[in-house]
Design brief:
This is Class I SAM-dependent methyltransferase. The chain has 242 residues and is an alpha/beta fold. It is built from nine helices and seven strands. The chain has two domains: 185 residues, Rossmann fold, CATH 3.40.50.150; 39 residues, no CATH class. Helix 4 packs parallel to helix 5 and helix 6 crosses helix 9.
Length: 242
């Protein structure tokens, strides 16, 4: 999807976004539970980059459990960012956040981060070279050996397994049996507007964006999540795996 189209889409969805995805809360709760355990080795004063943060669900979870962490919050949709900012104020951690409305390539902060999150974002970049470049932008904002937790929808869309997972995914979101025409519409949307790729292909894209081989740490239906570490710069000594 074009950047302007993505921004417009989420501006329109912002008011009802959390309600729309409420049925997936158990999945997100498990993802965030594991995320907290993956980030336990970060310093007490860690700086975290949250890319495409939406309404701020993962931001709120991390801020609540880590009262000294600072956050750089990046979101192109002004409407989504407004809701995120309200959440931060309501939950008492807004003073620890720098809010940036725009895409990551417009972030002017020179500060490097200990870790980053990027959930269900890169899937909207259909060109695989551009998607790799997006991850390279994240890598460039991390300290040496900084870590990234990212998630995207993933599957081999040419397989029978994808049809089963897609049907289950649709039923999960609606809590009802979705008719064949509904599945067909979603299949077309995922084919045209979302870069749903096999999990190993997404891992390769992340790696090509400046990270060591990503580790798949979570899967629920179509959603896959990886932990990756910024790869050493050329000429530096190789670091250990995540």
């Amino acid at each position: 999807m074009h950047q302007d189209d993505i921004k417009t889409l989420f501006d329109k969805q912002a008011a009802n976004y959390d309600a729309q995805w409420a049925k997936s809360a158990p999945i997100n709760d498990c993802l965030y539970f594991l995320l907290a355990s993956l980030f336990t080795r970060l310093p007490a004063d860690a700086r975290i980059l949250c890319v495409g943060v939406g309404t701020g669900a993962e931001l709120g979870h991390l801020a609540k459990g880590n009262p000294s962490w600072q956050f750089t919050v990046v979101e192109p949709s002004g409407s989504m960012l407004d809701i995120c900012r309200q959440r931060a104020k309501r939950e008492g951690f807004a003073s620890r956040c720098y809010f940036h409305e725009g895409y990551l390539d417009t972030l002017s902060s020179a500060a490097l981060h200990d870790a980053a999150t990027c959930f269900l974002v890169s899937q909207f970049i259909l060109d695989q070279q551009a998607r790799s470049g997006f991850f390279r932008e994240i890598s460039g904002n991390l300290k040496p050996e900084g870590i990234l937790a990212s998630s995207d929808l993933a599957s081999d869309v040419e397989t029978a397994e994808y049809e089963i997972l897609l049907h289950a995914w649709m039923n999960m979101m609606t809590a009802s049996d979705v008719p064949p025409e509904g599945i067909d519409r979603k299949r077309k949307a995922y084919a045209n507007d979302v870069g749903v790729l096999p999990a190993n292909r997404i891992a390769a894209i992340i790696k090509s964006g400046g990270f060591e081989l990503p580790v798949l740490f979570f899967q629920a239906g179509l959603l896959h999540a990886w932990l990756s570490k910024r790869a050493p710069d050329e000429g530096s000594v190789n670091s250990t795996a995540v």
